[in-house]
UniProtKB/TrEMBL annotation:
Pfam families: GSH_synth_ATP, GSH_synthase. This is Glutathione synthetase. InterPro entries: Glutathione_synthase, Glutathione_synthase_a-hlx, Glutathione_synthase_C_euk, Glutathione_synthase_N_euk, GSH-S_sub-bd_sf, GSH_synth_subst-bd, PreATP-grasp_dom_sf. It comes from Vanderwaltozyma polyspora (strain ATCC 22028 / DSM 70294 / BCRC 21397 / CBS 2163 / NBRC 10782 / NRRL Y-8283 / UCD 57-17). Binds 1 Mg(2+) ion per subunit. Keywords: ATP-binding, Glutathione biosynthesis, Ligase, Magnesium, Metal-binding, Nucleotide-binding. The keyword Secreted does not apply. Gene3D superfamilies: 3.30.1490.50, 3.30.1490.80, ATP-grasp fold, B domain (3.30.470.20), Glutathione synthase, substrate-binding domain superfamily, eukaryotic (3.40.50.1760), Glutathione Synthetase, Chain A, domain 3 (1.10.1080.10).
Length: 482
């Protein structure tokens, strides 16, 4: 095992301020480890929230998370293929208790299938997130993301930053880093671009120069993370991309023959619509934006993801999969069932099933063991511990079904680190969430490509419940394995 000093690297404050921080700022600005600041000014960028040191992770946990990724990809692809009608019946039910968002997604899907969804290919760019549970010393899944997964680009950058600092001797002054022989770098920047390229390749373009349309948010701070994928698409695959917000799409695109999606100005065909927006209610400002979502769903472009794949990422679906009868609908092999379930913690519904009644009891009797989650993405939406009972009491019991009650995973404070946010830095104990990326290209009955696509480590102060980087709680980090 390791000395305390290994887990708690320390270095003189003077060295940090006078020398190491300027090195980090300059490397980050030179290489694009950047983000727009919280007050979003397009002309001013700053370093993305990041750690000074990589964080140590047990090799075994890291490898296990990677090892199970293709099984997760396949599981969610099979759910989304919906051959058993399970997802659609669960989504229809969930839509009732969450009309504001799940209901809208579901409604848009129903409209799309009525019009007819001609493009059968769909692309999932996924990220499965884990914390390492302290007592079991095992990875436990926080959630499975099926839409707008971010930080595939910046994860590579932060690994490269730490590798640079290590290789060039900048950490030499720090005590306790003698084990930093090798800082691995995530290849998510190229693997996610590769996923998009596989979809473009399989798309039967009539023009031969089909592009990828990135659907993005207005005022997106995490632009550079996305642009890394765009640059890799062009550099490594010769594929061009466009960026548009929901409100620009009706103006700038049109449908051609067979509902092919075309860029108006150039007549270029769009092979893949890649959503980096559309995962939160605020992404749809008006009904017109929902019409645009429908228009894209019924266009012949491949969606990354389509609405069913997005719906499969609902926290309710994650809860249901912890009930083995549902998991077994999609996974037949005992060893894979075992692999997947070993990453689960208990998740309860708050409905009228017996498990739901158990959930309701636990929410009031021992809320300190739980987090309550709505069907939302992007961080900042959960209710924690003692806040759960009063929150549930404040809403109508009819709405409880829109939430799941999840056991809190208790990670170890991995180490002390220094988190840089803008021009400030903070020295604290951190905990880290490991994300594993994957991509999968499939249609209603066939899976064409299923790949692991790199990793992400995000760290946060132990004092904060949530770890969203853009939401302002966490930062991007890299790993050293032991
Ligand atoms: P979102 O889709 O908004 O990212 P998450 O399920 O990832 O929702 O929850 C947000 C954050 O809340 C996580 O990144 C993690 O920090 C914390 N969290 C969520 N579930 C758990 C859990 N079971 N145990 C401990 N922390 C959790
Ligand atoms: Mg999420
Ligand atoms: Mg999350």
């Amino acid at each position: 095992m390791f000395s305390e000093s290994f887990r708690y690297p320390s270095l003189p404050d003077e060295y940090l301020k006078e020398y190491l921080l300027p090195e980090i700022y300059q490397w980050s600005l030179s290489n694009g480890l950047i983000m727009y600041p919280p007050d979003f000014k397009p002309e001013s960028t700053s370093i993305a929230p990041t750690t000074v040191f990589p964080t140590t992770l047990p090799k075994e946990s890291f490898n296990k998370a990677i090892d199970v990724q293709k099984d997760y990809n396949e599981l969610y692809a099979k759910i989304s293929q919906d051959q058993l009608g399970w997802l659609t019946s669960e989504a229809a039910e969930l839509a009732k208790s969450d009309p504001d968002f799940t209901g809208k997604l579901w409604d848009t899907y129903l409209k799309a299938s009525k019009i007819g969804i001609k493009q059968k290919l769909r692309l999932g760019l996924f990220r499965s997130d884990y914390l390492i549970d302290k007592s079991a010393n095992e990875i436990k899944q926080v959630e499975f993301n099926t839409v707008s997964v971010s930080f595939g680009g910046l994860s590579t950058k932060v690994g490269e930053l730490h590798q640079f600092l290590n290789q060039s001797g900048k950490y030499d002054v720090a005590k306790g880093l003698e084990y930093y022989k090798y800082v691995p770098v995530s290849d998510s920047d190229v693997k996610l671009a590769e996923g998009l390229a596989k979809a473009v390749d399989r798309y039967d373009s009539i023009s031969g120069n089909a592009c990828v349309l990135f659907v993005v948010q207005n005022g997106e701070r995490n632009v550079f993370d996305q642009r890394i994928l765009e640059y890799n698409l062009l550099k490594l695959h010769g594929i061009k991309s466009k960026r548009m917000t929901f409100d620009e799409i009706p103006e700038l695109t049109k449908l051609g023959e067979d509902n092919r999606l075309l860029i108006k100005a150039t007549n270029e065909e769009v092979a893949v619509v890649y959503f980096r927006s559309g995962y939160a209610p605020t992404d749809f400002k008006t009904d017109k934006d929902w019409d645009t979502r429908l228009y894209l769903e019924t266009s012949y472009a491949i969606k990354a993801p389509d609405l069913l794949t997005q719906l499969s990422g609902a926290k309710k679906i994650q809860q249901l999969l912890t009930e083995e009868i549902y998991l077994r609908k999609f996974v037949k092999e005992d060893d894979i069932v075992k692999k997947l379930t070993s990453t689960f913690v208990n998740i309860y519904p708050l409905d009228n099933t017996s498990l739901g009644n158990e959930g309701k009891r636990l929410a009031f009797e021992s809320p300190e063991k739980f987090v309550l989650k709505p069907q939302r993405e992007g961080g900042g939406n959960n209710i924690y511990k003692e806040d759960i009972p009063k929150f549930l009491n404040s809403i109508d019991e009819g709405e409880w079904n829109a939430y799941v009650l999840m056991e809190l995973i208790k990670p170890e404070e991995t180490m002390h680190n220094i988190i840089i946010r803008g021009d400030e830095y903070f020295k604290e104990a951190i905990i880290s969430e490991l994300g594993i990326f994957g991509y999968i290209l499939f249609d209603d009955d066939t899976i064409y490509n299923n790949e692991y696509a790199g990793w992400l480590l995000r760290s946060k102060f132990n004092s904060s419940n949530e770890g969203g980087v853009a939401a302002g709680f966490g930062c991007v980090d890299s790993v050293v394995l032991y």
